[in-house]
Amino acid sequence: MKNSLILKPWGSERILEKNKNYVLKKLEMKKNKRCSLQYHKKKKETIFVISGKLEITIGKTVKHLRKKIFKEGEFITISPKIIHRMKGITNCKYLEASTTELMDVVRLKDDFKRI
Prior knowledge:
There is one protein chain. With 115 residues, the protein is mainly beta. It has strands at residues 5-8, 11-18, 23-29, 37-39, 45-51, 54-59, 65-70, 75-78, 83-88, 92-98, 106-109. The strands form three sheets. A six-stranded antiparallel beta sheet has the order 1-2-3-10-5-8, with no helix packed on it. The protein has a three-stranded antiparallel beta sheet with strand order 7-6-9, with no helix packed on it. A two-stranded antiparallel ribbon has the order 4-11. The chain is globular, with a radius of gyration of 13 Å. It starts with a strand and ends in a 6-residue tail after the last strand.
């Protein structure tokens, strides 16, 4: 599982490190594609943009979401239960450092009809 490329409808992800303390992923988001509008029950993650522009939608409720564009070198930490979604404004690459709960995702909306 570690260091294997996982293709996603919006791009790809690669797990660089997974151990009992944290997970580190490298993700590529294609221009104008976005992941699910989602939240995690336990997982906490930090997103660090390596290249390109990444729009992150974030908020405590679906009715109170805000959007911000992150550029190379910028980052954000997303706590559990915070709703979020990433979208490629350009083709972009980013790192995600998180706690170890990889299957902890609750999808609220998804462009690709995933559950």
